[in-house]
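In this section we walk through a basic example: taking a raw amino acid sequence and producing a predicted 3D structure, encoded as discrete structure tokens. The instruction is simple. Fold the sequence below.
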Amino acid sequence: MIKSLWINLPVKDVQKSKEFFTKLGFQLNLQYGVREDSASFLVGDAGLVLMLFEKSLYEGFAGTTLSEIPSGSEVLFSFDAESPEEVDDLAKKVVDAGGSIYGEPGYKDGWMYGCGFIDLDGQRWSILYMDFGKMPLG
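The resulting token sequence is shown next.
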């Protein structure tokens, strides 16, 4: 039985990426990733683990070399927010921490409020508040 999910990402600079995600409010996980070439975070109530690895360490775990950064995206990491204000607050933190916004905060379909951002290594993320009371049922 699967107990947890770990997201493993290669990064150019572990220390800069660690600072970035800490500024966004991710909880540093000192049980793992306390080496100079890695970092670990616990994300959300379920304790999802986000691991950041320097390129060579990541390639060793993955058993392959990294592909060139594509002009598009193959993965979008998404997480939920408790309010539109939390989405706005995170968008500001992303920019202040050196990331960029690719989807400005706003409503979609009248019941979802979110934004999209890009971390220091080009990975795409989104944060979304969903008002299920306004969700269309048809």
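Looking at the output, two observations stand out. The radius of gyration is 16 Å. Residues 18 and 39 are 6 Å apart (CA to CA). In the next section we compare this with other chains.
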